[in-house]
Predict the 3D structure of the following.
Amino acid sequence: MSAPIAKATTKAQSQTAPASAPASSQTGLSAPPAARAHARDLSFEADLRNGLEGELRTDAFTRGRYATDASIYQIMPKAVAYPKHARDLAAALQIAGQHGVPVVVRGGGTSQNGQPLGRGLILDLSRHFNAITQYDPEARRVTVQPGMVLNTLNDRLRKDGLFFPVEPSTASRCTIGG
Ligand SMILES: Cc1cc2nc3c(=O)[nH]c(=O)nc-3n(C[C@H](O)[C@H](O)[C@H](O)COP(=O)(O)OP(=O)(O)OC[C@H]3O[C@@H](n4cnc5c(N)ncnc54)[C@H](O)[C@@H]3O)c2cc1C
């Protein structure tokens, strides 16, 4: 996806500056924002791949899917990770910090104002952080992991005549963390 943009830039630069000097220093041109947004950060990706047990996706298709929510906004992330456990979360934050990459946590991605979008690392917790960790129907208390989908929680609570009282129309996809 980035190749045609990069080529177009090179061609434009070669037409406006002598071949002997970097085009940007002669013309003030730099890669257009779209090309910068699609650029890969291979050393960051390698550190994540080595440091995480959960899956890491850096292909354009996945990044494109996570570049949107239910709004009109679009921001291409560098990478999308699906942390498997707390150790993965800690490692992802540490690696991102070392590389100066911002982190955004994401659930169902149903926000309407671009809240779960970002240029850095997206952590999708809906895949592995979706369990009930404590449940006491008598006391009407439940503790869940943040990636649990609202309807999944209410399906379980319904068996005891209980209900978590939030009713967005996105209940089949939105998570408690979101
Ligand atoms: C058609 C439609 C109807 C809607 N109706 C309602 C409604 O009736 N009521 C309502 O309140 N909202 C509604 N919404 C908005 C949206 O569905 C809700 O806000 C929903 O709760 C978002 O959950 P999510 O899991 O999709 O969050 P996401 O969109 O993935 O994330 C939302 C925000 O929470 C953050 N976040 C997500 N997970 C975590 C985490 N584990 N830790 C820290 N931060 C986290 C994200 O970074 C982001 O800032 C609607 C949206 C649509 C498209």
Q: What stands out?
A: The chain has two domains: 39-128, 130-178. The longest strand covers residues 132-136. The chain has seven helices and six strands.
